[in-house]
């Protein structure tokens, strides 16, 4: 490896060998990072706290867990042979099928031999390697795990996911609850018995909207505790027809081109119709067609949905009308009708019979914005009004400490021992969502400030990993250390804010895109809303210009 000798020899994985890259996490990001970096000649090890691959899809086993991107494009695109040999069974893949796909990928590319399972990282510290005599013993990262062992590497890559740090509400008395409680993101692998039991679900975001219909079919009684009413579009999930599967496989090259040119990494063609110029009956026809098709494409079928409030109001009214048509009880309908944010400014759920579920006799809805949960008692929930709800099982569908939470779940310390938590005290700062000033040779896959959760994730992941791999090849050749400059971080922070403010996304005050679901979290728009294609072009320009947003320095040789 050109330039490697000036860095000294780094300690390996307990066997004295040299490890170029440590990757934390073995989900979509970590698996592809391992495959890609290994193919570029790096020695790579992956540390994964779970007992198997899958990342988010290893843990998210709650009833109804399913992807909201369609299966034919919620997958890797780096290998045409993989595209052809894997066959999805449903329009929207369930958790078990997605995990099976990732297990297939791990086996097909012999990835497991470089993954350590059941290993939880507790800290990572940068060491410049500079000795008191002015020499260098080799810069790099020391990663410590829960069992007290340490591993050394030259480069550290986080593949910890955007939605992996479970957000459990801090409600007084939870420890005293006589029943059982679970967070959907840490669902027991053996399942939870709810048959004939009184179940309470807290949260009506994407996860709650998936879980509630399934739990309602199983539970003796289901009570939904809703803070914020949500829009939802029918998923229209169904088994895939074999002829359609073959047609899709034949079209993969054009599908991938559309994804790369898109705003959100989906192979959708955006409508060019100015919908408000149409009479009401024609507008409704467009909405109805999109509703009948189902899924996230509804957004692409309505031009300017996220930039023109009048357009969004018109589309939102259509969805509210659908809720009124579906739900029988007027009071329940009113509680379920969203009015405090424009459609799709929070993560837009898709569902299977979500609103219909509230017509079941064993389902109740409680508005905890009007009457908040005050405490957990041994018997269930007590609201501020004094009303009590007896429960046997509590399900927290309360989402995650998104984007920043996974990176702050362990102690990362960069130059001069500064912690990432302190560096991000006033909100996260990154350059392109790929690195952080003061943290040399640390690279974050789909970090805050990247399109990440606003995209079809595999597309964003592959772009990030490929970009990081190219930079690491340069660093290997030159012996340089790379970290973003504070000036580049500031410039990118301005662009992230500009992109968000150019949309309606910032108008959803309770959105986890803003960190609003986590008490005390600094409010800042976390992902980049300027569109995937624009972001990819920006990253390409950065690389072509020689990485001007990164300080590249070669330490003094030993």
CATH topology of the largest domain: FAD/NAD(P)-binding domain
Q: Can you tell me the CATH class of the largest domain? A: Alpha Beta
Question: What's the gyration radius in Å?
Answer: 24 Å
CATH level-two architecture of the largest domain: 3-Layer(bba) Sandwich
Shape, per Cα inertia axes: globular
CATH superfamily of the largest domain: FAD/NAD(P)-binding domain
- The strand order across the widest sheet is 3-2-1-7-19
User: What is the helix content?
Assistant: 25-40%
What is the total domain count? 2
Number of discrete helical segments: 17
Total count of strands: 21
Distance between the termini: 17 Å
- The residue ranges in which pLDDT falls below 50 over 5 or more consecutive positions are 1-17, 132-136
Average predicted confidence as pLDDT: 94
Largest sheet report: 5 strands, parallel
Walk me through this protein's architecture.
The protein has 558 residues and is α/β, with parallel strands linked by helices. The chain folds into 2 domains: 4-45 and 120-165 and 402-553, FAD/NAD(P)-binding domain (3-Layer(bba) Sandwich); 174-396, no CATH class. 31% of the residues lie in helices and 16% in strands. It contains 17 helices and 21 strands. It has helices spanning 28-39, 56-59, 80-85, 95-108, 206-218, 242-250, 252-260, 280-293, 297-300, 309-326, 330-336, 354-357, 404-408, 420-423, 457-478, 486-501, 532-544; strands at residues 21-24, 44-48, 115-117, 121-127, 140-145, 150-153, 155-158, 180-183, 198-202, 221-226, 233-234, 350-351, 363-367, 373-377, 380-383, 388-390, 393-396, 411-413, 442-444, 481-484, 550-553. Strands 3-2-1-7-19 form a 5-stranded parallel β-sheet, with helices on one face. Helix 5 links the parallel strand 9 (198-202) and strand 10 (221-226). Helix 1 (28-39) runs parallel beside helix 15 and helix 15 runs parallel beside helix 17 (532-544). It is globular, with a radius of gyration of 24 Å. The model is unreliable at 1-17 and 132-136 (pLDDT under 50).
């Amino acid at each position: 490896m050109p330039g490697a000798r000036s860095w000294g020899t780094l300690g390996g994985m307990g066997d004295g060998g040299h490890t170029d890259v440590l990757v934390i996490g073995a989900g979509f990001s970590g698996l592809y990072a391992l495959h890609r970096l290994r193919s570029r000649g790096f020695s790579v090890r992956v540390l994964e706290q779970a007992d198997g691959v899958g990342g988010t899809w290893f843990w998210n086993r709650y009833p109804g867990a399913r992807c909201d991107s369609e299966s034919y494009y919620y997958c890797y695109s780096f290998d045409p042979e993989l595209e052809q040999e894997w066959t999805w069974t449903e329009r929207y893949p369930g958790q078990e099928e997605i995990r099976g796909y990732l297990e297939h990928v791990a086996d097909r590319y012999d990835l497991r031999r470089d993954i350590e399972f059941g290993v939880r990282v507790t800290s990572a510290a940068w060491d410049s390697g500079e000795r008191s005599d002015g020499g260098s013993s080799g810069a790099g990262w020391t990663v410590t795990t829960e069992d007290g062992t340490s591993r050394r590497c030259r480069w550290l890559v986080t593949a910890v996911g955007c939605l992996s740090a479970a957000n459990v509400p801090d409600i007084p008395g939870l420890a005293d609850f006589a029943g059982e409680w679970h967070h959907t993101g840490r669902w027991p692998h053996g399942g939870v018995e709810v048959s004939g039991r009184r179940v309470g679900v807290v949260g009506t975001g994407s996860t709650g909207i998936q879980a509630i219909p399934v739990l309602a079919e199983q539970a003796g009684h289901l009570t939904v505790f809703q803070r914020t009413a949500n829009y939802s579009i029918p998923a229209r999930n169904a088994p895939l027809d074999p002829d359609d599967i073959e047609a899709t496989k034949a079209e993969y090259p054009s599908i991938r081109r559309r994804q790369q040119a898109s705003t959100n990494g989906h192979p959708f063609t955006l409508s060019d119709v100015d919908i408000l110029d149409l009479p009401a009956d024609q507008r409704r026809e467009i909405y109805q067609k999109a509703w009948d098709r189902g899924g996230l494409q509804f957004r692409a079928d309505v031009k300017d949905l996220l930039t023109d409030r009048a357009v969004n109001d018109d589309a939102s009214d259509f969805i509210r009308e659908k809720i009124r048509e579906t739900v029988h009880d007027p009071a329940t309908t009113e509680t379920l009708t969203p009015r405090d944010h424009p459609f799709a400014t929070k993560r837009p759920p898709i569902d299977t019979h979500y609103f219909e579920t509230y017509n079941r006799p064993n389902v109740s809805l409680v508005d905890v914005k009007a009457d908040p949960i005050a405490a957990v008692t041994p018997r269930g929930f007590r609201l501020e009004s004094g009303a009590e709800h007896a429960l046997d099982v509590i399900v927290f569908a309360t989402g995650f400490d998104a984007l920043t939470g996974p990176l702050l779940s362990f102690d990362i310390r960069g130059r001069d021992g500064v912690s990432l938590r302190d560096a991000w005290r006033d909100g996260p700062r990154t350059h392109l969502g790929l690195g952080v000033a003061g943290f040399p040779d640390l690279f974050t896959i789909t970090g805050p400030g990247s399109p990440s959760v606003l995209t079809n994730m595999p597309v964003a992941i592959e772009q990030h990993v490929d970009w990081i791999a190219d930079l690491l090849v340069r660093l290997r050749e030159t012996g340089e250390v790379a970290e973003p400059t504070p000036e580049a971080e500031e410039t990118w922070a301005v662009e992230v804010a500009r992109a968000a403010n150019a949309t309606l996304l910032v108008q959803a005050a309770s959105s986890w895109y803003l960190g609003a679901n986590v008490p005390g979290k600094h409010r800042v728009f976390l992902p980049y809303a300027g569109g995937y294609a624009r972001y990819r072009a920006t990253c390409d320009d950065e690389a072509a210009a020689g990485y001007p947003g990164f300080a590249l320095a070669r330490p003094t040789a030993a």
